[in-house]
């Protein structure tokens, strides 16, 4: 399948000599949800801005729907909806007019039925005659999405869609994103929230200091890097583990009250039973056992070396 967005060897150095992006190559398939995860200043917004034609690249190229974003700017821009981080529209305008105007600005013919459909989908229809300043922060966010969808784009960019919104609205946004994908819209979102990427993305890209460190199917990523840990609570605290257990990947934690065993279930399906037998033979009594899946956060930390993206 031809990718809807094709990024080749993209680089951006700002005028003062700061390199925000280097050698990014990435294909984005039609109808997927791609999450770009990265810390502050990683280059996420710069990358989106180049694709949208707002910022010029220093090197490399980007095409949307087979058209170059510089040479065919009008064509590519008409295929894209961008939900920015902040509201910049006239606060005294009504919701309905704001979204209608936005469609007009993109040179599309009026389509009241379509506008009604998106406002209803975003639970904004009841508020269509309210001015933006009368809306709550969450509703203003929805208006931004409605504006970005006003010209029926094929690709939707969401720049940190849920930063600072409450849990309920975050859930609503996630289901909306999934609904949009079901209608064939390709969605690229940037986020600081690992759980957001984990919840809604089909693929996850990790970007740091202007480089794309990894881009992978979410499920494959979790499988590949996501080992498991078994936590064994001990009946009696221990100072150290006996030498006969050296062959196992064990760590003594919680001041000697817990053993942590790192393992990959597929690699050795019989390992857990063998470990329990080895512990029993060594006279180590266990009071409780639990397991946990290595999370995307662990993967992120191992790549970026920082806990807060
Ligand atoms: N117009 C500009 N001139 C100079 N440097 C810039 C400009 N815009 C962005 N930068 C720098 O480029 C780097 C990447 O910024 P960008 O906004 O793309 O990051 P980001 O990943 O979107 O970050 P955040 O998560 O904080 O929004 C930052 O160091 C930023 O200071």
TrEMBL record:
Keywords: ATP-binding, Nucleotide-binding, Transport
One example GO MF annotation: ATP binding
SMART domains: AAA
UniProt entry tagged with the keyword ATP-binding: yes
UniProt-listed InterPro entries: AAA+_ATPase, ABC_transporter-like_ATP-bd, ABC_transporter-like_CS, ABC_transporter_ATP-binding, P-loop_NTPase
Keyword DNA repair: no
Domain called ABC transporter: residue spans: 5-234
Family designation: Belongs to the ABC transporter superfamily.
The protein's name: ABC-2 type transport system ATP-binding protein
Species of the source: Rhizobium paknamense
């Amino acid at each position: 399948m031809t990718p809807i967005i094709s990024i080749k060897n993209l680089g951006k150095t700002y005028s003062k000599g700061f390199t925000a992006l280097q050698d990014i190559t990435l294909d984005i398939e039609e109808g997927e949800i791609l999450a770009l995860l990265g810390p502050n200043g990683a280059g996420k917004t710069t990358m989106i801005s180049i694709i949208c034609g707002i910022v010029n690249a220093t090197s490399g190229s980007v095409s949307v729907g087979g058209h170059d974003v510089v040479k065919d700017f009008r064509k590519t821009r008409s295929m894209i909806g961008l939900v920015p981080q902040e509201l910049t529209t006239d606060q005294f305008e009504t919701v309905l007019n704001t979204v209608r105007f936005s469609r007009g600005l993109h040179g599309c013919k009026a389509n009241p039925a379509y506008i009604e459909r998106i406002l209803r989908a975003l639970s904004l229809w009841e508020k269509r005659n309210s001015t933006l300043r009368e809306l709550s922060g969450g509703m203003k966010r929805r208006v931004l999405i409605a504006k970005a969808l006003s010209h029926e784009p094929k690709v939707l960019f969401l720049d940190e869609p849920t930063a600072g919104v409450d849990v309920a609205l975050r859930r609503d946004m996630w289901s909306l994103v999934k609904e949009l994908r079901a209608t064939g819209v390709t969605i690229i979102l940037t986020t600081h929230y690992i759980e957001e990427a984990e919840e809604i993305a089909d693929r996850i890209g990790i970007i740091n200091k202007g480089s794309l460190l990894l881009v992978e199917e979410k499920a494959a990523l979790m499988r590949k890097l996501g080992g498991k840990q078994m936590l064994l609570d001990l009946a009696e605290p221990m100072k150290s583990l006996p030498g006969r257990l050296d062959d196992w990947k064990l760590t003594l934690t919680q001041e000697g009250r817990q053993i942590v065993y790192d393992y990959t279930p597929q690699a050795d399906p019989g390992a857990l039973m063998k470990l329990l037998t080895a512990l029993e033979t060594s006279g180590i009594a266990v009071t409780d056992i639990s397991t946990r899946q290595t999370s995307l956060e662990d993967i992120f930390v191992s790549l970026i070396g920082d806990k807060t993206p």
